[in-house]
Amino acid sequence: DNIEEAFNELEQENKDDEDILLIKANLLYEKEKYEDALGIYEKINSLNPKNEDALLGIANCFYKTNKKDEALEKYDEILGLNSKNQNALFNKGLTLYERGQNEEAYNLFESALEIKEMPSILMQQGICLLRDEKYREAINKFDKVLQLEEKHPKAFIAKGQALFGESLFNE
């Protein structure tokens, strides 16, 4: 709360400073005060409609408050500005995955991986493959996660599920 008070003072002195507003919005988001964070992200967006960080914050607040359609629209807006925004690609993929749109989600994760290989993105691809009962491909993704992060607990569990599914499928 002291940090929030300090940012309120800074904000009064620099009402339209996007960086200060963004830090405050991100802190509120981290504290799960999504509606408060959303208001600040929207203020930044009104000052600079092409601020990808603010747009991503808006999209993520929508996502966290179960406004998935609005979140998808914002992810699309970000990707219209920058088709290589890895966070927008990944988060749009997560949203589509939750809707059962595995193929679209997988492809977005693939696009995100082309920017930078990350265990979290490989995990989500593996989970999509697991849901589609593509066990061997899922195992390969989970193995890649474990190559990048040897003690990734979720990768071990997911790989075990894929191995079990593969053994049932091959019997």
Quick tags:
mainly alpha, 10 helices, elongated, 171 residues
**Mean pLDDT across every amino acid position:** 92
Helical fraction = over 70%
Q: Which regions are unreliable across 5 or more consecutive residues at pLDDT < 50?
A: none
Give the number of helices.
Answer: 10
Major beta-sheet overview:
none
Give the structural class: mainly alpha
Q: Secondary structure elements and their pairing?
A:
Layout: H1 2-13, H2 18-30, H3 34-47, H4 52-64, H5 68-81, H6 86-98, H7 102-115, H8 119-131, H9 135-148, H10 153-169
Q: Would you give an account of this structure?
A:
By secondary structure, the protein is an all-alpha fold. Helix content is 80%, strand content 0%. It has ten helices and no strands. The chain has helices spanning 2-13, 18-30, 34-47, 52-64, 68-81, 86-98, 102-115, 119-131, 135-148, 153-169. The protein is elongated.
